């Protein structure tokens, strides 16, 4: 029954994609993040829904006259540079067949990140995309939160098997990245009952993160919560929610959970933690010996035998940073870090750009919450091998779309928003335009005050 229902939903939505290709982005996001096909048991489980959606979306792009726009910024070029560098490192990979196959998967993710930027062109489409993103993962947050409460926190919260978020660490990270976006949508909801429902969903999602029993997610949720409080416009309500969640966790979670979290401090006695450190040294040694790194899927038995301090302790990277370092070298890691840091700074610039424009307050809220999501990814990702997580590049795409709308809002304002606050600097083009306008205004005023000499 689930299989038939999923096929019906997907094909009905695809009919609209031909005339409205941005709906294809919504469908791709839902399939890519939620993985609904992994919740079925029959022929839908392995059906290539994502590939079908991609094909129909590209056809809709060719035949539809829907508005489109590419956002060219520093982050766009960094994404392109990262993509080109990964292609280069794949050519010299330790395991070419495995590397080529994984490169194809990563390029598909980046292609749709660019298509997302290209087709989501206004506020309505952007907020709709955020809703689809949140709904895709909040489903597991609400479900996992209820599971944690009813099970007393004994069992781990997991994602759908066979997906990017199938493990407890992965679903924990995905939910950490989603909670800030849920807070953004909370401020967009007008009906009181819907606001209460969203607050309950946020609370249950927080419990699901804790219930994943992921130590990386536990560190990430602490960092994310602190940054969420700093960035929120409603610090009292956010603080109360965080405090209540902490109290519930303290009362609910069993002794085994506390022992697992305590092992973070005593990592030298934890074989899993020491195995990760062994993998990190392996990545460092590979990057030190090879400018291009080892290419995708280099964390193999052969690589550990050559480069690991302990060649018998074989682990995956378990870190976005060491994963990129080992697979693409120090240059690849530099591009990856610069992309993330530049995107984070872009969000901060957006909040300043629209700060004094009441109509664009939603842009500032979204930009602030995107920053919090990126912090969650950056902190938790230090202990998870999800450097090519499609959700991360999806957030970069949302950031660039929001930046484009923020610039439009600033350009349409009588006084550029960046100059309405004394501490902020406007882009040079805006300063020149304002200076020229000021000179013209003074000249016109002087001509009206000076008597006509010919009279």
User: Helical element count?
Assistant: 17
Give the overall form: globular
Structural Rg: 25 Å
The span between the termini is: 93 Å
User: Order of SSEs, N→C?
Assistant: HHHHHHHHHHHHHHHHH
Major pleated sheet: none
Q: Number of folding domains?
A: 2
Number of strands: 0
What class would the helix/strand composition place it in?
A: mainly alpha
In helices, the fraction of residues equals over 70%
User: What is the strand content?
Assistant: under 5%
What does it look like?
With 455 residues, the protein is mostly helical. The protein has two domains: 2-268 and 311-412, no CATH class; 417-445. The protein has 17 helices and no strands. Helix 2 (22-34) packs antiparallel against helix 3, helix 5 runs parallel beside helix 16 (390-412) and helix 7 (168-188) runs antiparallel to helix 8 (192-211).
Describe the secondary-structure layout:
Elements: H1 2-17, H2 22-34, H3 49-63, H4 74-91, H5 96-119, H6 123-150, H7 168-188, H8 192-211, H9 215-231, H10 235-252, H11 255-262, H12 271-289, H13 301-307, H14 320-353, H15 361-380, H16 390-412, H17 428-449
Helix pairs in contact: 1-2, 2-3, 2-6, 4-5, 4-14, 5-16, 6-7, 6-8, 6-16, 7-8, 7-9, 7-15, 8-10, 9-10, 9-15, 12-14, 14-15, 14-16, 15-16
In short:
With 455 residues, the chain is mostly helical. The chain contains 17 helices and no strands.
